[in-house]
Specification:
45% of the residues lie in helices and 23% in strands. With 317 residues, the chain is α/β, with parallel strands linked by helices. The strands form two sheets. Strands 3, 4, 5, 6, 7, 8, 9, 10 and 11 form a nine-stranded mixed β-sheet that branches. The protein has a two-stranded antiparallel sheet with strand order 1-2. The longest helix has 27 residues, at 70-96.
Length: 317
């Protein structure tokens, strides 16, 4: 090894590189400190030591905004490769010992956040050396992350059919028509979908899975879907219905406590509940890591158990 590289290697630490990457990704010393449980002075100290070792400034402030220098951008590429190699080393060493290890990066759409923790509990019991991170996003962001190949797996419904994706369906997602307790529609013996749609429909934003499912059903019935309000999450829609602002179609798993208490009630509309499937999705060209493959095998082998675990009470007649 050349002497200059030896000197550099003796002056650098993995901790410095970890702190640098956190500052680079979080675009700030304070946010990096919060992520790593360090004080801002501790982050600044690590960065000064790293800059001294490299002989180059890595960040600079213009006004109050932090910018990465050309040297910092070059270092970020190298550090990302170093940590990728470290993750592969961890996986390879675990494989030699007959274990599955490494990172598993999962993205879940909003609705699936009610399911993912239960999927992971038994999986992590089987593979305790796998480090799982879960990011919850809306459907549009999930599709963008699939396009960018940003994660290992995405858990979603309504899988895009115009993209080269592999998907593994594993659980029904029942979408039910919901009204607040005491709503006039509950007095009708046979409420119809037009009655429901005209009762003040509350929906998610365009592109969300539950809204797409309702839009498709309305198209099939040749009915117009006109919402009086759009909200950004299922919880927001649920609370709007509870407040008496209107009616909605929601995933049943997201409102089980309210159904059990009776504060929300479902309508047995013709064609309801709408049934979709949650799926584990990834780009077809992606090469599964050992942790990915282990998770996919685990889901495939336990579909029946998931169905039993999440068996839902019947819709109110």
């Amino acid at each position: 090894m050349p002497l200059s590289i030896q000197r550099l290697a003796t002056r650098l630490t993995f901790r410095q590189l970890q702190v640098f990457l956190a500052v680079y990704e979080q675009q700030g010393y304070s946010k990096a400190g919060d992520l790593l449980c360090l004080t801002q002075p501790a982050v600044s100290s690590q960065m000064r030591q790293l800059e001294d070792a490299l002989g180059q400034p890595l960040f600079e402030y213009v006004g109050r905004k932090l910018y990465c220098t050309p040297a910092g951008e070059t270092l970020a590429l190298s550090v990302s490769r170093i940590f990728d190699e470290m993750r592969r080393l961890q996986t390879d060493l675990a494989a030699l010992d007959g274990k599955i290890a490494g990172e598993l990066r999962i993205v879940a759409v909003n609705t699936a956040q009610y399911v993912v923790p239960y999927l992971l509990r038994a999986f992590l019991d089987l593979h305790p050396d796998v480090q799982v991170t879960v990011r919850v996003v809306n459907r549009a962001n999930a599709i963008q992350r699939l396009n960018d190949n940003s994660d290992d797996l995405v858990i979603m419904g309504m899988v895009p059919v115009d993209k080269p994706l592999a998907s593994l369906p594993f659980l029904d997602n029942e979408l039910v028509a919901v009204v607040p307790a005491g709503h006039p529609l509950l007095q009708l013996q046979q409420p119809a979908l037009p009655d429901f749609l005209q009762a003040g429909l509350l929906t998610r934003e365009p592109g969300s899975g539950s809204r797409l499912a309702l839009e498709l059903h309305c198209q099939q019935q040749r009915l117009d879907l006109k919402a009086i309000m759009q909200l950004g999450s299922n919880d927001a829609v649920k609370h709007a219905v509870l407040a008496g602002l209107g009616v909605a179609v929601l995933p049943k798993l997201s409102i089980l406590p309210e159904l059990q208490l009776g504060s929300l009630q479902t309508l047995a509309l013709p064609g309801f509940p709408l049934r979709r499937s949650w799926c584990v999705v990834y780009p077809q060209g992606k090469h599964p890591t050992p942790a990915m493959r282990a998770f996919l095998d685990y889901v495939q082998q336990n579909i029946r158990q998931f169905e039993q675990m999440f068996s839902l009470p019947p819709v109110t007649e």
